[in-house]
Automatic annotation (TrEMBL):
Organism listed in the record: Chaetomium fimeti
UniProt keywords, alphabetically: ATP-binding, Kinase, Nucleotide-binding, Serine/threonine-protein kinase, Transferase
Domain Protein kinase, chain residue ranges per copy: 1-308
Protein name: Kinase-like domain-containing protein
One Pfam match: Pkinase
Taxonomy, superkingdom: Eukaryota
InterPro entries: Kinase-like_dom_sf, MAPK, Prot_kinase_dom
TM spans (from-to): none
GO molecular function, one term: ATP binding
Length: 313
């Protein structure tokens, strides 16, 4: 990041309008208003991330499941950073789920929108990496607490043939990474399917629940081992086919063989009761959370799942 930053009250000139900075949200994100007092978001970051997001949003501008880009900042002229103007949303869907897990109708709405976004990205050769970035606008429509669901922050998206993907470079929050990415093996668009499933579990259960979080803290040297153990515990055992995956070597094989989870304590999610999670939600999640990425359905296939035909509210 550049040492300089925007100031409150500063005016920025875009291709289409003038924007006044009103609040800093994060190191790279500001709130602003346009000439009609409409609230927008200004994102300023290193060119690589901004260029990636700008390129993808231009390509997918007709897809309403992705956060729209409104404008591009021209003045002040970018130094080592660049800036774009994005549509403002009220909050992250995770903030809503903190208070109470998503209802069946809410979960299907989020699932449909995220999978629509992933489908277009995957079909054009991109891995999103962070399906947890789901934004919503608040409303109150019966059991629906939000509307206008979209996937945001495409700056970290990578091509399927990128060095990061083919070398297994770890990206994203550890507890939402796929098994192959966690083990630093090559990963594909199926990585996003696992991350989506882990995100959906957290949103349905609510209250900041994270199924793969180990007992130790993130800075503990056994933290990643604890996550791998929880893969095995909730969705295991790892199938024999795992040994045929590209990237399996002695180090990764040892990590897998050293997992000591009693047989009765493996695959616990499959045996979750209907009082813990609805049968329909359970079956949908079980169908996509496959330890071997080759067994996971595509986003397009998941959109045809019977789960979306459920009318439960």
């Amino acid at each position: 990041m550049a040492s300089s930053a925007f100031n409150i009250g500063q005016c920025l000139k875009g291709r289409l309008g003038i924007y006044t900075i009103t609040e800093r949200l994060y190191p790279t994100t500001w709130l602003a208003t346009d000439a009609t007092s409409q609230v927008v978001v200004i994102k300023r970051d290193v060119p690589k991330r901004v260029d990636t997001e700008r390129t993808l949003l231009r390509r997918f501008q007709e897809n309403s499941s992705l956060r729209p880009m409104i404008d591009e900042i021209q003045e002040p002229r970018p130094d080592e950073c660049a800036a774009i103007v994005l549509k403002h949303y009220d909050c992250h869907v995770g903030e809503i789920a903190k208070e109470k897990g998503l209802s069946p109708r809410e979960a299907r709405c989020v699932g449909s929108r995220v999978l629509q976004a992933l489908r277009v990205m995957h079909e054009t050769g991109y891995i999103y990496v962070k399906p947890a970035n789901i934004l919503v606008n608040l409303c109150q429509d019966g059991d629906m607490r939000f509307k206008d669901v979209c996937l945001a922050d495409l700056g970290d998206a990578i091509p399927t043939d990128s060095v990061e993907a083919t070398s297994g470079y770890p990206r994203g929050t550890p507890v939402f990474r796929s098994p192959e990415a966690t083990l630093m093996m090559p990963f594909t668009t199926a990585h996003d399917i696992w991350s989506f499933g882990a995100t959906l579990i957290s949103l349905i259960y609510g209250y900041n629940f994270s199924i793969f979080s180990p007992a130790c803290k993130p800075d503990d040297e056994m933290y990643v081992d604890g996550i791998v153990r929880n893969f095995h515990k909730y969705f295991g055992p790892f199938p024999p086919s795992y040994l045929t995956l590209p990237g399996i070597d002695d180090v990764r094989l040892e990590a897998l063989t050293n997992i000591t989870v009693e047989g009765k304590d493996r695959g616990l999610f499959k045996r979750a009761s209907s009082t813990e999670i609805r049968n329909q939600d359970h079956d949908f999640i079980w169908d996509l959370m496959k330890l071997d990425h080759r067994d996971r359905p595509t986003a397009a296939r998941l959109l045809e799942h019977k789960w979306f035909a459920d009318s439960t509210s």
